[in-house]
Sequence to fold (420 residues):
Amino acid sequence: MRAALRAVVFLAWIIVLLPVAAGAQGNPDWHRAIPGFKIAGNLYYVGTADLAVYLIATPQGNILINGNFKQDVPAIRKSIEGLGFKYADTKILLISHAHGDHDEGIGLIKPDTGARLMVMDADVAAVESTAPGRPGAKVDRILHDRDTVELGGSTLTARLTPGHTPGCTTWAMQVTEGGRTLNAVIVGSPNVNAGYVLVNNRTYPQIAADYVKTFALLKTMPVDLFLGAHGAYFNLKDKLPKMGGAVNPLIDPAGYRAYVAEREQAFEKELAKQTAEARTGDAVGFDLAWNHVALSVPNIAETMAWYEKMLGFKGTVRPGQPGARQQVADLRRGNITIELFQLADAAPLPESRKNPSEDFRTHGVKHFGFEVKNLPAVLAELKAKGVKMAFDLRVTPTEDFAFISDNAGNAIELIEHKTR
Ligand SMILES: [Zn+2]
Ligand SMILES: [Zn+2]
Fold:
């Protein structure tokens, strides 16, 4: 079962890594260059047909959000210059999240422009990584939820929307267009990629809780301009031909709310599916070792004496409060522990519970058992000491067993498994 679980985790890992590598040539819109265009105010789109890159133009230079894949950097540069801005004026670099389709090109743009790179804390290690497909770019400023990035009179607010990556960032800013102030929201990603492990995730244990927080936040953000890390999030394909008309198609608060609601449902559906699968037992993420059994007895001292004499346990009474109506003791032999309780006015064990066959007619925990070698010899020794039998020796092809009663009437099974 452990090997199977490891295989599943390993497989999930591969699937998580694959979209970046396979996708680099997988989706033609990712690398299809389109001319840059103005969104509103000083906010511009300079990405490819699907991989969104945003430029915020200020008198003190420009902010760029996302760098796409390395192969897309020339198209980004062309879009920036096509709008009349200078690539070299890029002063600050930001990302939506640390996946290659949004950050790999940062590894080129940063040394090209000398811009300062600012990344949400939980994605910093992935951005600085020099592993294949990673930008390997030094982060100059580590961001936290609600931090602001300011340049030339423009302010962007970083909102931590984790799950898709631990440091996934949704950017919010206000732009002014025609005397109207518009709230722009650039969604980092609410998507659960194929192969993402939401239940018993060993490298990202809080992933599901993070998605829940992300959806709660996205639902409360004030939105006029609905934007995101991929054009597909906000249906750029259909909106782009409508740009330049009387109404800006990117002003779409209803589309934003519908998108977030649909993505939340998709997350909840996947979480329910993975939770159900985990319940089948093979995917329990923790180990168990046997610990103890507890007995309520009429007299702790007598019970300790019985277990010491008959079964070789050692008893220790736990220090208690003076005058306490409850006494507790532990019986130990090897790694077996029996916890004993003696309560004033406790009711005695019913007669029916002292006979194993009869006791099965009542639901509940019935008895506990010890494995022994040479059961007939063990029983002979116990009988010589005066043990009370509850169920005498029964011989079967696979095991021999018998039940004895302790001094309080609890049934104890002694069992000997037969090996061939
Ligand atoms: Zn991603
Ligand atoms: Zn992406």
About this structure: Residues 7 and 171 are 37 Å apart (CA to CA). The pocket of zinc ion (ligand 2) is lined by residues 99, 101-102, 229-230 (CB under 6 Å).
